[in-house]
Amino acid sequence: FGSEITYFNEIESTQTVAHELSHKGVKEGHVVIANEQTAGKGRLGRKWYSKSGTSVSMSIILRPELPPQQTPQLTLLAAVAVVRAIKSNVGISCDIKWPNDILLNGKKLVGILTEMQADPDVVHSIIIGIGLNVNQDSSEFDDEIKEVATSLRIVKGRVIERAQLIAAILNELETLYDLYLEEGFKPIKSLWEANSISVGTYIYARTMREVIYGFAKGITDDGVLLVEDQQGVTHKIYSADIEIAS
Ligand code: BTN
């Protein structure tokens, strides 16, 4: 991945550009990187802050031959790849919160947004957008996210070289993607579970319709979160915000 890169010093969102390039037929593994995004997109319609020079903002185009319901597996794969790259490159161990938030000391370090272009029975491309807080100091986060966000620099106490980190993430992504294509989701699922803080614990799952409180039992082979409520009913969570109940 990353043998073809489209780079911008400033762009609204790498995710939007990646969608356009994907339509134009760029090859699998094409990466769109921006030094700064002016309208970064987050999950569930939220915005994503990424100011000049301090974060990694990139979108990777994949073209797996998959039915659409399997794409959540790639969302989880991306989170594992980023956690492994941070560990090998910076020496820090992070936690994954379902589906793919990466937390450090309980605060958000990385956000991942997976979007697909698909017909009902076949996926044309999957765009994986990764936003990683690298060199912000705590005063640089906007008031809205100050309490809940962190960066590698805050934890390491030094500036981190972004280019090497990007290369490490792309390498891990490619390695795990190849493993996935060869052996399926099983090995990825094990790696995800080993790095996750959101299974084997009580959680609140805020879906579009309701809040479910219960014990997170695990994930299915499609990457769906299973939560058993206090009546013993198991819910399948496809999309939600998760809060670990303390
Ligand atoms: C989230 O946690 O809500 C997901 C955030 C994803 C942010 C990344 S930054 C690169 C890519 N371009 C975007 O506009 N969003 C994603």
UniProtKB/TrEMBL annotation:
One of its GO terms (cellular component) is cytoplasm. Biotin binds at residues 37, 108. Keywords: ATP-binding, Biotin, DNA-binding, Ligase, Nucleotide-binding, Repressor, Transcription, Transcription regulation. One of its GO terms (molecular function) is DNA binding. Residues 1-181 form the BPL/LPL catalytic domain. Belongs to the biotin--protein ligase family. Acts both as a biotin--[acetyl-CoA-carboxylase] ligase and a repressor. This is Bifunctional ligase/repressor BirA. It comes from Halalkalibacter krulwichiae. The chain holds residues 79 to 324 of 326 of the full protein.
